[in-house]
Amino acid sequence: MKQEHIHFYYTSDLHSHFENWPKIVTYLNQQTTHHQRKGETYFLLDNGDHLDRVHPATEALRGIGNIELLNRANYDVVTIGNNEGITLDRSELIELYQQANFEVVCANLTSANSLDPDWLKPYKLLTTASQVEVGIIGLTAPFTPFYQPLGWQISDPLQSLERYLKELKEQADVIVLLSHLGIDQDQEIANRFQDIDVIIGGHTHHLFKKEQWVGDTILTAAGKFGNYVGAIQLTWDHGEKRLIDKQAKAVPVSSYVEDQPTMKQLNHHQQTANQLLSRTVAQLPQPLEVNWFKETLLIKQLTRTLQDWGEADLAMLNAGILIDGLKRGQVTDFDIHRICPHPINPCIVSLTGQALVEVIRAGLTEDYTNLQVKGFGFRGEIMGCLVYSNLILKTKEDEQGSSHLVSVEIDGETIQLDKEYRLATADMFTFGHLSPQISRANKKTFLMPEFIRDLLRPTIQQLAKML
Fold first, then answer.
1. Tell me: the pLDDT tens digits for 377-418?
2. Residue 69: count of CB within 10 angstroms of its CB
3. Are 32 and 74 in contact (CB under 8 A)?
């Protein structure tokens, strides 16, 4: 055999969108059956963020159901996305892959103060039918402030790549990178590390319907939520002992029928989740309203809980973090998850009074209240108004109906512009453009592994006694 086709199929950023998974499995089964008949080598890969605790089944099972899905689909190698790495506590992440029938590769993640779990490897060598060695190396986004409190050491991905690429080149004929880093990093890697044959991209949810070339490296990406599966074909010439062709595409799965055994497996996971989330949190004597455009009792009390729990000077949350209200009667863990599904952690940020005033002013505008928020762990629709605890605002409206800040009091005293205050808030404000003052703050402490919804439980229990 002079030439050999090597096939790879991959998923990326499924985020527990299980509605597409049975179709993905049908497509993968068809492709692998075809290659088996032809005697061709194929590998199945996942590029991270397969799980997302926004889904009640993933929440209840802590991602174990996701691993069972990958096992049943006969995956070969996966890497870790930030949703695996930082939305589970250390023991949950270690347990997650204990029963995996596939290899887990992530070259820039290690344990901080103890031995790495047995399943964690920087890379894996796979061998084709004719002994071509394929090296699969993984990298994940370096969210250092989140990994450290959980007991993990996350390293610079490019430095880690440089370190392991040297030994990988000595062993592998072909090198494939599972990159949960984002499109900008992928392009930089392709420019700097020309020994990599294929970069499978993710994290930023970009989609390449056809391979993109950077030098001799191809970049490929399958978007998000399982709407596409990535398909790669490499052609190895045994005479020349090198790859002579590289092709990649993203295949839409919407037209494929659903694999029935997978449907049955998903239904079983959901039934188990329903049982696990049926625990009663509280009995409400009256309903609790949620309104994204005003302070309600529930969001106000949640903000107070956050301040007390974080031992902060004040707290701030956006009303849109609660996506629904609660009816009178029994409240279960399922309800808690339903109204606050975001994998968002509490955090403490040190801000001057001047910076706080700027945050407050920005939040008064109609544009900010109606801002549609995408990413940053937020799984709702809009920002909603900003709600504070231990802070009193005085505002006035102009002729156009816009609110303007008149004064701010913290703990009953006028805010001091040069004083530093400890603000408890949601970690999403530390990213990007949602609040430049908070994202630029030098002192940030992320309170891991709790989510905001973990503070919602005691809040509702307290309200049930008060009402």
1. 899 999 999 999 999 988 887 777 677 888 899 999 999 999
2. 23
3. yes
Contact indicator for 340, 407 with CB cutoff of 8 Å? no
Tell whether 55 and 180 lie within a shared domain.
yes
Query: What CATH number is given to the structural domain containing 32?
Result: 3.60.21.10
Can you spell out the DSSP letters for 77-132?
A: EE---HHHHHSS-HHHHHHHTTT-SSEEE-TTEEESSSPPPTTEESEEEEE-TT--
pLDDT digits (tens, 9 = 90+) for 352-370: 999 999 999 999 999 999 9
> Phi and psi of 424, rounded to 5°?
-90, 130
The CATH number covering residue 404 comes to 3.90.780.10
Do residues 95 and 219 share a domain? yes
Instruction: Tell me the average pLDDT across 283-302.
Output: 96
Strand partners of residue 331 = 282
Which helix or strand (DSSP H or E) is residue 328 part of? none
pLDDT band of residue 93 (cuts 50, 70, 90) is: very high
Q: Which amino acid is at 315?
A: A
Question: Amino acid identity, residue 450?
Answer: E
User: Is residue 386 located within the same domain as residue 438?
Assistant: yes
Closest CA to 24 of 68, 73, 87: 73
Across the chain, what does the average pLDDT equal? Answer: 95
Count of structural domains within the chain? 2
- What is the gyration radius of the CA atoms in the chain, in angstroms? 25
What is the model's pLDDT at position 1?
Answer: 60
pLDDT at 407: 87
Residues 212 and 341 in one domain: no
Asked which of 254, 273, 292 is the last residue of a domain, the reply is: 273
Residues 254 and 354 placed together within one structural domain of the fold: no
Alpha-carbon distance of 237 to 245, in angstroms, equals 9
What's the domain range around 164?
3-273
Cα distance between residue 459 and residue 303, in whole Å: 9
| CB within 8 Å of 220: residues ≥ 6 apart | 198, 199, 200, 201, 208, 211, 212, 230, 232, 248, 249, 250
- Among residues 77, 173, 170, 166, which one has the least CA distance to residue 132? 173
Determine the pLDDT at residue 467.
Answer: 86
Which of 273, 307, 341 is the C-terminal boundary of a domain? Answer: 273
Does pLDDT of 186 surpass 90?
yes
Q: How far apart are CA 398 and CA 36, in angstroms?
A: 72
Burial 51-65 (b: 16+ CB within 10 A, else e): bbbbbbbbbbbbbbb
Q: Does 288 lie in the same domain as 433?
A: yes
